[in-house]
Write a structure and sequence with these properties.
- It is built from 1 helix and no strands.
- By secondary structure, it is an all-alpha fold.
- The N and C termini lie far apart (about 70 Å).
Length: about 45
């Protein structure tokens, strides 16, 4: 494996974990907000 390939794989390896954590956090937040907006108490206009 060339030096460039080694650098690329190291960058990909070290960047994978933060991307997974941040992506998971964003997905859970988005799903939670969506569920809360569905189940929120709606005001009756009657």
């Amino acid at each position: 494996m060339s030096q460039l390939e080694s650098i690329i794989w190291h960058v990909l390896g070290y960047s994978a974990m933060p991307v997974i954590i941040i992506g998971g956090f964003a997905a859970v937040a988005a799903i939670s907000i969506w569920l809360l907006s569905i189940t929120a108490d709606k005001e009756d206009t009657n």
